[in-house]
Design a protein that fits this description.
- Helix 2 (35-48) runs parallel beside helix 7 and helix 8 packs parallel to helix 11 (349-363).
- The strands form 3 sheets. This protein has a 7-stranded mixed sheet with strand order 1-9-8-5-4-2-3, with helices on both faces. Strands 7-6-10 form a 3-stranded antiparallel sheet, with no helix packed on it.
- The chain is built from 11 helices and 12 strands.
- It is an alpha/beta fold.
- The chain is globular, with a radius of gyration of 20 Å.
- Bound molecules: pyridoxal-5'-phosphate.
- Residues 58-60, 84-85, 87-88, 130, 156, 158-159, 180, 182, 192, 194 line the site of pyridoxal-5'-phosphate (PLP).
Length: 364
């Protein structure tokens, strides 16, 4: 089966460097919050161009700790998209705050800024845009709305490491940028990991305390925190990959443009807004013939996945929010028609051609 992501290919290329780094860390006998985490945090903050970056245990924790550290909780509302991975909303719910959805735009699948303002109430504290599939949300407008209504902005950058708008990287706009290093993300670890970029020193200190049991060191605890740390081995691996991330993203973009050149125009192909740099964590098309196409691909040994088959407002687990079918027509349409195709930097062109041919035959 042709996989969605082929991580073994990438590992083969960086094996020596990765194994060297892991061996050194194992020999150093320093496994938690050591120099590799520190160095990785520094390099990422330089890369995203933020004051600071704090490594945590996962992307979900990055979101949770950022929201918590901003003092958002019980009685507060956070506006976000219903078309995203479930963790975006779990993180809001962990803090006691209530997720409030705004519909998406169908060209980028990101939150529609035209529908944010009507969702703002006196309880709203933050907007949480997701840069879905690697395409940046419309951050200029999100920041304008946030400023006008005095709201925080927390960016879910789990799928957008390296994406930018006119050179300004995702994760550098809001109060907090939340990243995931789950293996299949653009910058992936060999296990779980996450990170929060911040521009405010006070916020950075709060998050550093929260990730380590609410302690600023030496067993003195100012608050009740969590155990959520990026470990040294993952940081060592991520340092090896961070050097290559621009190259990986460039290759993803090349593969995406080959797909887009070959695929039938009757399909809705990924869109890149003017000035934005899409990093294609997923290459996602929309089609009313999804079932036929997915079966055709499977019969030819090619994977494809529906991200995401049910919008969050219709998930059973979120029934308590009281949403109904029809509330977010674009998110619902996307859930019915999206299909993500194999996408990774090492994907070969002949394979893209084969995939496109199968799809085109079934699409027309
Ligand atoms: C992967 C992902 C997360 C969660 O990251 P983990 O590291 O798996 O906890 C959150 N939001 C989005 C959009 C994601 O894709």
């Amino acid at each position: 089966m042709v996989p969605m992501v082929d991580l073994s290919r990438q590992f083969a290329e960086i094996k020596d460097e990765v194994c060297d780094s892991i061996t050194k860390i194992l020999e150093s006998a320093h496994y938690i919050l050591g120099q590799h985490v520190q160095e990785f945090e520094k390099k990422v903050s330089e890369y995203i161009r933020t004051e600071d970056a704090i490594g945590v245990a996962s992307g979900t924790d990055a979101l949770h700790l950022a929201i918590e550290a901003l003092g958002i909780g019980e009685g507060d509302e956070v506006i976000t998209t219903p078309f995203t991975f479930f963790a975006t909303v779990e993180s809001i719910i962990y803090t006691g705050a209530r997720p409030v959805f705004a519909d998406i735009e169908l060209d980028t699948f990101n939150i529609d800024c035209n529908s944010i303002e009507e969702k703002i109430t006196p309880k709203t504290r933050a907007i949480l845009p997701v840069h879905l599939f690697g395409h940046p949300a419309d951050m200029d407008r999100v920041m304008d709305i946030a400023k006008k209504h005095n709201l925080y902005v927390i960016e879910d950058c789990a799928q957008s490491f390296g994406a930018n708008i006119n050179g300004k990287k995702t994760g550098g706009y809001g109060e907090a940028g939340c990243f995931s290093f789950y293996p299949s993300k653009n910058l992936g670890a060999y296990g779980d990991g996450g990170l929060i970029t911040v521009n405010d020193r006070g916020l950075s200190e709060s998050i550093r305390a929260l990730r380590n049991h609410g302690s600023r060191g030496s067993y003195i605890h100012d608050t009740v925190g969590f155990n959520s740390r990026l470990d040294e081995i993952q940081a060592g691996i991520l340092l090896v990959k961070l050097k290559r991330i621009d190259d990986y993203n460039r290759k993803r973009r090349e593969k995406a443009s080959v797909y887009s050149m070959l695929l039938d125009r009757s399909l809705k192909l990924p869109y890149e807004k003017d000035g934005t740099y899409h990093v294609y964590n997923q290459y996602t098309i929309m089609t009313t013939k999804r079932e036929t196409i997915q079966k055709g691909l499977k019969d030819n040994g090619i994977s494809s996945v529906v991200y995401y088959p049910r919008p969050l407002h219709l998930q059973e687990a979120l029934g308590f929010l009281g949403y109904r079918e029809g509330d977010f027509p674009n998110a619902e349409k996307a859930s019915r028609e999206v299909l993500s195709l194999p996408m990774y930097p090492e994907l070969e062109e002949p394979l893209i051609k084969k995939i496109a041919k199968i799809i085109n035959n079934l699409a027309s």
